[in-house]
Amino acid sequence: MSYFAAVFARTPQGWVGTEAMLAEAENVDDVADLMREAAVESYGDPVLLLVEQDDDWFAAARLDAGGEPRAYVSAVREEGLGGLFAELVGEVPEGDPAGDTEVLEDLGVDGKRLAGLGERSLPGDALLEIAEAAGFGEEFDRLRD
Question: Domain of 106?
């Protein structure tokens, strides 16, 4: 299974992104720690983690200063990397979308649009649309290539 994951932090100078290595993450706390590290290293707030796996599903997780991560997942998966995000969004039937549809609302992606991306777009295209709306499309493209 292949995946792409990147963390983006908004700084006073703009958005900064870096690839995220989630292979060793064992639980949702590991994901939150990875996001907190990015926030500390970049002095960024908010911090977003965008993930897609095998053109099957995508996830957008957000960490605000002092908060706990919130996430939206286009299709919940219980195994592997998908299981980490299933922990963040709670129990729902496998394959269903779940989580906080308003997680990116202040960044230009309202809940209806976010839910629609999971229905009509490939995961990579959905993440690019999110990145462009939030203002870090070029940074996303740089990491994706």
Answer: 3-144
Amino acid at 106: D
What is the count of structural domains for the chain? Answer: 1
Alpha-carbon gap, residue 23 to 9, rounded angstroms: 21
Q: How far apart are the first and last CA of the chain?
A: 18
Six-digit token string for 84: 């980490």
Helices and strands (H, E) in the chain, number of each type: 5, 6
pLDDT along the chain (145 residues), means of 10: 90 92 88 87 86 95 88 93 90 93 96 95 96 97 92
> Which of 118, 104, 11, 3 is CA-nearest to residue 61?
104
Confidence (pTM): 0.94
